[in-house]
Amino acid sequence: MKCTLDSIFEVGFGVELNCLEGSSEEGTEFMKAFDTSHALIWWRFLDPFWKLRRFFHIGSEASLIKQIKVVDNFVHQLIGKKRKLLALKGNCNDKEDILSRFLTESEKEPEKMNDKYLRDIILNFIIAGKDTTAGTLSWFFYLLCKNPLVQEKVEQEIRDVFGEVHTGAGIDDFVAKISDTNLEKMHYLHAALSEIIRLYPILPVDGRCADVDDTLPDGFRIKRGDEVFYTSYAMGRMTCLWGDDACNFRPERWLNDGVFQPQSPFKFTAFHAGPRICLGKEFAYRQMKILSIALLHFFRFKLANETKKLTYKSLLTLHIDGELPLCAVSRTNF
C-alpha cells in the first residue's frame, strides 16, 4: 500500500510522499485516513441506518467526517503547494506530472476546474492507482509462495532477460536496466499477473447504470435507470469460460508457444470492457512488472507460516485479510 501510494503521488502529482520509508508523518496520516474512509464507506452497504447516523452526526458517520476532513486538508495543501511551484517556474515545459497539467488547464477555465474539481481528480487517481495494484501484488506474492515452480519460472525469465544476479549488485543499477523493451519480453510474468487478476480481481463486483432503454446480448431488456452488475470474481472461476481447471493458478493458459495471448475483455472483465475500459490498465501492468522484477531478481520468497489459512476481507476492493508475513532469501546466497 505504501509503495503504490508513493508511486501514484510521484507519477500523478510530482510529489515524493515517502510513505514507504516512513519519513513523512503527513503522508502516513493521510494514508490511514484514506484507508479508514474506504472501510467506513463500504460499511454503509451493510448498515441500514447510516443516513440516520449521518443526520445526527454519530457513530461511524461522525468518524467518517473526521477522516474525510484529514484527506481533504492534505489534498488542498498539495494543490496549493503545486500552484505556488508552478508560479515560480513560470511557463516552462517541465510539467510532466498529471496534476501540473490539470493546473495549467485550470487557468483557462478557473470556474469549472476549481480546487474541488482538482481534489476529485486527485482522489480518483489515488483510488484507481493505490489499492488496486497493491492488492493484486499481495495476492501475486502469496500464490508465488504457494506455487514455487511458478516462482522459479518467473525468476528464470528475469535471468534470461536481465542476466544473473551477482554479489554486491546494486538495486539502482539493476532498475536502470528495466526498459519498455525488456518489459515487453516478460511474457510469463505478464501471464502470471493476468492469472492473479483473473482469480482475485481487485474489484470483485462492478456494474453500470443504463442511460437509455437497452437490450442485453441474451435478449434481456433493461430500462433507463436500471443498474446492471457483474461479478468478475465468479466469472474468473467459471469452468464454461476457463475450462475444468478454472480455479487453478496456471499462467500457461495465457501463453501460446511462450507468447502472451490476451483474452477478450468481455471474458476477462477485471478491467471492464468497451468504451469504459480502465484507462490505467497498461500503467498498472507496467508498475506491477517493475516491482516484481526488482524483488524477484534479488530475493526468493516463501511464506513465514505455511499452515496459515489466508482469506480476504470484505471491502469494495478484494484485499488480503490481515498481514502476509514472507521470508525473503537473498539470491546471492544460491
Structural account:
Pfam families: p450 (PF00067). One of its GO terms (molecular function) is monooxygenase activity. Its cofactor is heme. It is a single chain. The chain starts with a helix and ends with a strand. The protein is globular. The mean pLDDT is 88. The chain has 14 helices and ten strands. It has 334 residues and is mainly α. β5 (255-256) and β6 (259-260) form a beta hairpin. Strands 1-4 form a two-stranded antiparallel sheet. It has a two-stranded antiparallel ribbon with strand order 2-3. The chain has a domain at 1-113.
Comma- or semicolon-separated keywords:
334 residues; mainly alpha; two-stranded antiparallel sheet; 14 helices; globular; iron; Cytochrome P450, E-class, group I; oxidoreductase
First-residue to last-residue Cα separation = 30 Å
Number of helical regions:
14
Q: SSE order, as H and E?
A: HHHHHHHHHHHEEEEHHEEHEEEE
* Multimer state: single chain
What average pLDDT do the residues reach?
88
Unreliable parts: none
Largest sheet properties? 2 strands, antiparallel
- Helical residues, percent: 40-55%
What's the shape? globular
DSSP summary, beta strand count: 10
The largest sheet has its strands arranged as 1-4
The amount of beta strand, in percent, is 5-15%
Structural class: mainly alpha
Output the radius of gyration: 22 Å
Family: Belongs to the cytochrome P450 family.
Pfam families: p450 (PF00067)
Cofactor: heme
GO molecular function: heme binding; iron ion binding; monooxygenase activity; oxidoreductase activity, acting on paired donors, with incorporation or reduction of molecular oxygen
